[in-house]
Amino acid sequence: MSVLDNWGQWKDYLGDRLNRAQDDGMNSNVITDLAYQVGDYLARNVDPKNEQERVLADLWSVANKEEQHAIASMMVKLVQNNGTR
């Protein structure tokens, strides 16, 4: 089972990666830009595995670049307190 199959596991996975990036000293602007790049990659190359990912993919597909950056920023905020630590 992939982390993409379960929304809670996906958020925990992203939360772990965010915590690691912050611990390594990565600033929030770089993190948000990376989140945008990951979101763009997923939207172009990965089929959504659950309803939540489908909603995100649909929103991403109708958003302009500025709105996509806002979605990425909100995803970072959503997972800030997630993860296994």
Characterise the protein shown here.
- The chain is mostly helical.
- The protein is 73% helix and 0% strand.
- It has helices spanning 7-23, 28-45, 51-62, 65-79.
- Helix 2 crosses helix 4.
- The longest helix is centred in the middle third of the chain and has 18 residues, at 28-45.
- It is globular.
- The two termini are 22 Å apart.
- The relative contact order is 0.21.
- The mean pLDDT is 87.
The value of Rg in angstroms is 12 Å
Q: What is the mean pLDDT?
A: 87
The total strand number stands at: 0
Helix content: over 70%
* Low-pLDDT residue spans: none
Number of helices in the DSSP assignment = 4
| Shape summary | globular
Structural key phrases:
85 residues, mainly alpha
List strands and helices in order, with pairings:
Blueprint: H1 7-23, H2 28-45, H3 51-62, H4 65-79
